[in-house]
Amino acid sequence: MNRFYLLILCLMCFMSLRSDNGNQGEQRTPVTKTGGDWVKPDNDTPIPPNANVITLAQGITYYSANEGIFLNLKEPAGKVKLFSLTGEVVWQGNLVQGRFLIPTRQGIYFLRINNKSYKLIRK
Q1: Would the pLDDT of 24 be above 90?
Q2: Which residues neighbour 18 within 8 Å (Cβ) at sequence distance 6 or greater?
Q3: How far apart are CA 121 and CA 79, in angstroms?
Q4: Do 46 and 75 touch, CB atoms closer than 8 A?
Q5: For residue 4, what is the enclosing H or E element?
Q6: Contact, 35 vs 99, CB < 8 A?
Q7: Tell me, what CATH number does 66's domain have?
Q8: Is 22 within the bounds of a domain?
Q9: pTM of the predicted model over 0.85
Q10: Would 11 be classed as within a structural domain?
């Protein structure tokens, strides 16, 4: 039984060290808007022809690219959070309608928009 507790303690220490050093020296960039105005029509910036656009809900789509995750919103979304698989908040903020880039690495993420959660895969 003591070995079990020792194993749990070691895992917790390892996870805390990993989360502390995972972003050492790396600054997360804020979400950037691709294009001019914040409120814009759907077709003013083309989506690459090879993009695999995935619909999460009505008016919410995304696709992944080398830069990160491009999130397309047809209506203002309000409070948005992006979580890593470990539960770390990767990005959060208030978004309006349009196309947004969230710089991320490859992996599985959870997107929370107005108290609804969606799974995103960045390949």
Answers
A1: no
A2: none
A3: 21
A4: no
A5: helix 2-21
A6: yes
A7: 2.60.40
A8: no
A9: no
A10: no
